[in-house]
Write a structure and sequence with these properties.
three-stranded antiparallel sheet; 2 helices; RBD_domain_sf; single chain; nucleic acid binding; 2 domains; alpha+beta; RRM domain-containing protein; two-stranded antiparallel ribbon; globular; Nucleotide-bd_a/b_plait_sf; 95 residues
Length: 95
C-alpha cells in the first residue's frame, strides 16, 4: 500500500487558512511554499518569494496584499495562470 503524504505537506506546499473577514470562522485555504531556486544569482530574491495556489477566481490584488501584509511588507504582487504564465493582474509595487 502506498504511503500517504500529509495534505499539509503536498509537494512542499503548506496550508494557509485565511479568514474571509476579520473574526470570521469561515476561512479559505491556500497552498503556499517558498521559492527554492538553484540559481545563486536569484538566491536573495527567492528568500522573499512565495508561490501560492488554489486562489479563488474572485480574489483581488488588494485582498491578497492585505492577507500577506500580516507576515511583513509586500514589495510586489503578481498573479499568473498556471500553464502559460499569463498575467492576470499587473504587477505593482505595493506600499
Amino acid at each position: 500500500m502506498a504511503q500517504k503524504t500529509p495534505a499539509a505537506q503536498l509537494r512542499g506546499y503548506k496550508l494557509l487558512r485565511l479568514p474571509m473577514m476579520p473574526n470570521s470562522p469561515i476561512t479559505r485555504t491556500l497552498l503556499v511554499k517558498k521559492n527554492e531556486t538553484r540559481d545563486p544569482a536569484e538566491k536573495e530574491k527567492a528568500q522573499r518569494t512565495l508561490f501560492v495556489t488554489h486562489l479563488d477566481t474572485f480574489a483581488t490584488e488588494a485582498q491578497l496584499q492585505k492577507a500577506f501584509a500580516a507576515f511583513g511588507p509586500v514589495e510586489r504582487l503578481g498573479c499568473w495562470a498556471s500553464r502559460g504564465l499569463e498575467i492576470v493582474f499587473p504587477l505593482a509595487k505595493l506600499q
